[in-house]
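Pilot study result, target chain (164 residues):
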Amino acid sequence: MLEKRPRSTEPKLSEADIGKLSTWAILWKVPGLEERVQIRFSKRMYRTLGRYLPGRHEIRLAAFLTESGWEDLYNEVLCHEAAHAACYERFGWNGRPHGKEWKALMSDAGFVPRARLPQSPALRDVVLARQTARTKSRKTRKRPQRRRRAGAWERLRQIFDEGA
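Predicted structure:
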C-alpha cells in the first residue's frame, strides 16, 4: 500500500490568529466564524493578497504574507477577508463586496476599509519577482502546437476550389 505524501508544506494558522478571528467574529456579531471558515495559504497568489470564496467558506491568503516583515499586512489582509466572510454570513448576497456593511466591519476591527493597498516599493518588488519567476517557468515549458481549425470562410473556399 502506498503512503500518502503530505499535500504541501503550507503554513498553519497560529493560535494567535485564531484568537484574532474569534475576537473579530464576536465584535461583528458572527460568533463561531473561525470554526466555519477554512483558511488556506497559496503560493500561486502573487498579484492578489487574499480572496474569500463564499461557496466553499474558504479564505485564501498569499503564502508570502507569513514570512517575517509582513505581519502588519498579513493582519490587515486576514481581517479584510474575514470581514467578507462575516458580511456574507450576515447579509448573504445582498451585501456588496466593499460596500457600507463591509466598511463598517473593517472600521469596527480597527483597520482602514480599503480595497487596494497603496503601492509600496517593498510590495512591488515582491510582486515583480514572483511575476518574472512565473513567466520564466512558462517560457521554458514547450507546449505542443494546436492545429488551427479552419473557419467558415476557409471551408467555403475549399468547397468552391474543389468544385471548380
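One observation from the pilot: The radius of gyration is 23 Å. A full batch analysis is planned for the follow-on phase.
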